[in-house]
Amino acid sequence: MNEAVEFSDLSMDPALLRGLDALGHVRMTPVQARSLPTLLEGRDLIAQAPTGSGKTAAFGLALLHRLAIAEIRLQALVLCPTRELSDQVAKQIRKLGIGLPNLKLMTLTGGVALGPQLASLAQHAPHVVVGTPGRVQELLRKKALDLRGVRVLVLDEGDRLLDMGFEEPIREIVKATPKQRQTLLFSATFPEAVRDVARSTTHDAAEVTVEGAAHEATIEQRFYEVEPALKPAALAGLLIDHGANSAVVFCNMRRDTEEVVSSLAHLGFSALALHGDMEQRDRDEVLVRFANRSCNVLVASDVAARGLDIEELGAVVNFDVPNDPDTYVHRIGRTGRAGREGIALTLCSPRELPRLRAIEEALGLKAELRRPTLAALRANIGPRATMATLRIDGGKTDKLRPGDIVGALTGDAGIRNDAIGKIDVFPTRSYVAIQAAHVGQALAKLQQGKIKARKFRVSRL
C-alpha cells in the first residue's frame, strides 16, 4: 500500500486543502499517510486506529473528495456510537469542506426532537449525514432518509458501536445502501464481532493498523499504588502536579463520579461530573463548560466519555483501574492526541492489582508502581477555573451568531474583547465563557440590555 508524505502529494480536490489549512493540519499522522492514497482510489478500508490518531480527517477527506456537490442527494453517511462524537465528527467535516460551496451536512442523533430533523430532511436532502445508528434507522423506517445514493459509508469506532448494541440497526442501514459503495470501518480494537461486521460490509478492503494509544510515545504513563481511603488525597496531589488546568478523571462506577466531584469541589477545584444518568442537555452543558475552560476537572464514567475530544488536555487520571485493557486504551487516548504530548496517571489499590496485571500483559506494558504525593485535604488548595459560563436562552433559530453576542458584551456591557472566551451557539441556547473576574458585570449588563435589539433570558451556569 502506498504512503503519502504531504497532503499536497495527494490526487484530491484542491479545494480540500483549504479545509486542512483551516484545521491547522500541516503534517500527516500515520493513519492518514497509510490510508489516504487508498481511500482516494475508492477502495474499502478496515483500519485499526486509536482515538486521536487523525482518522476523522482521513475519512472526512475521502468522503468529501467523492461528493458531487451539484447532485442534491445524500451521498455519504457516517455512523458514530454517541451524539457527542457525531457532533465532533460533523464539526470537523464541515471545516474540511470549507472550500466546497453549498456543502450541506446534517447531524442526525437521538436525544433531540425528531420533528425538526424530519422537517429539514423534507426541505432539502443533505450531501452528508453524520449520526447515531438508532436515529438513522428510525428516519430510514419513516422513509425520511433515502440511502440509495450513498457512495461512501463510514463506521466510526466500530467496537463501541457494537458494545452499545447497534449491530441490528447497522445491518438494516447497510442493506438500504447500494452494493457499489465505498465502506470504511475504523475501530480501536478488533474483537470477533467487529471482524464479522467488517467481513459482511466491506469488499476487497485494504487494511491499516496504527499502534494503539497505549503504545504511542506521545503519552507518558505513570502508575501509583495507594490505599482506597487515600485516593482522594492522591488524586488532588496528581491534579495539582500535572493537570489542574484541564484534566479528565475516570471512575468505573457512575455513582463514584459524583463523590469525586464533591471531594474536588470542597478542595477548590472547578469540577463537574459526566455520566450516563444525566439528561442530554445537562451533559451538553458540562461538555461546553469543560471545553471553554470554566470547568478544569471533568470526572466521567466510560459510557459518557466515549467520543470525548478535548484539545490540549493536561492529563487523564484513572481514579480506578479500568476493568479491561480496551477501556484503558480508550481512556488514555483522550490525551496526547494528534501528535501532542500527553500524560496518563493511574491510581491502583492493592485489590486492583490483578486488573493492572491484565492490562500490562495485554498491552506489553511494565507498570512501575510509585508512591503518590498526597495533598492536604483542605479548602482552596486546588485552582478554580479562570472562566465562567453564561447561558443565553436564544440560539440559531433566533438567528443569533457569535458576533452578535460579542457585540452586546463589548458594546453596552463594556466588557473587553480579551475577557471573552469560547462561544457556542446551539439551536435554542447559546453559551459564552467570560473571565471569572468580569462575569458578574457581564451577566448584569446582558440581563438589563439587549442582544441584536432583543431581550433574552441570561443566567450563569
Structural description of this entry:
This protein is of the alpha/beta class and 461 residues long. It has helices at 15-23, 30-40, 55-65, 83-96, 114-123, 133-141, 158-163, 167-175, 192-201, 231-243, 254-267, 280-291, 302-305, 325-332, 353-363, 402-410, 439-448; strands spanning 45-48, 76-79, 105-108, 128-131, 152-155, 182-187, 206-209, 219-225, 247-250, 271-274, 297-300, 315-318, 342-348, 369-370, 387-392, 420-425, 430-435, 458-460.
Précis, in short:
With 461 residues, this protein is an alpha/beta fold.
Give the secondary structure arrangement, pairings included.
Layout: H1 15-23, H2 30-40, E1 45-48, H3 55-65, E2 76-79, H4 83-96, E3 105-108, H5 114-123, E4 128-131, H6 133-141, E5 152-155, H7 158-163, H8 167-175, E6 182-187, H9 192-201, E7 206-209, E8 219-225, H10 231-243, E9 247-250, H11 254-267, E10 271-274, H12 280-291, E11 297-300, H13 302-305, E12 315-318, H14 325-332, E13 342-348, H15 353-363, E14 369-370, E15 387-392, H16 402-410, E16 420-425, E17 430-435, H17 439-448, E18 458-460
Parallel strand pairs: 1-6, 1-7, 2-4, 2-5, 3-4, 5-6, 8-13, 8-14, 9-11, 9-12, 10-11, 12-13
Antiparallel strand pairs: 15-17, 15-18, 16-17
Helix pairs in contact: 1-4, 2-3, 3-4, 6-8
Main attributes?
461 residues; alpha/beta; 17 helices; 18 strands; 18% strand; globular
Please give the order of strands in the largest beta sheet.
3-4-2-5-6-1-7
The overall pLDDT, averaged over residues, is 87
Instruction: Give me the number of helical elements.
Output: 17
Poorly predicted spans: 213-217
Content-based structural category: alpha/beta
**What is the percent of helical residues?**
25-40%
In angstroms, what is the radius of gyration? Answer: 23 Å
Shape: globular
